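Structure ticket #2291
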Amino acid sequence: MIKWYMWRYFLIATVLVIGTAILITALHPFRLRIAVGPGRGTMAPKPAPPLPAASMPPRGLRGNAPWALSALPECLIQTEEWKGTASAVRAHLPAGAIRILAPATLHYADCTVTVTDAQAFVVRSDTQLRIPPYATFYRLSGNGLALLRSSGCAGAQCPAVLRIYSTPGP
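Resolution: structure written out below.
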């Protein structure tokens, strides 16, 4: 057991050791030398070989996409979006909107929208996207389109999304 009066000697010894280490480190001249010796390259530099051509031609985008019409601004431009309960979202549906009954085929620029019972398919050249259930389309004045997507549950408190689209151009 260390006596209480010995602590001051340990403290003095610690300060001396650390101080000496700091003083030696501060005064030591570090002379770092990097020596590059003569050598010979194994080969001449040349550009990397080109990548091999793809064995299959590139394919367009395919898959489920609730946002499909928003991703194709050449066909339709999304102007508004509301998210919330089905009853709150329906309140934002523009006046005079006419529901598009299935089966129906809509054409906007080079896009074809095929409306079925609860879903739709969007085709543009080699891009084929599916708007999953439950999708309801409305025709708006001025060649606009509204898409109301819900989760399919019954009742006014179901989550839903309403997107309003207009056609591009003047």
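Closing remark: The first strand starts at residue 62 and ends at 64.
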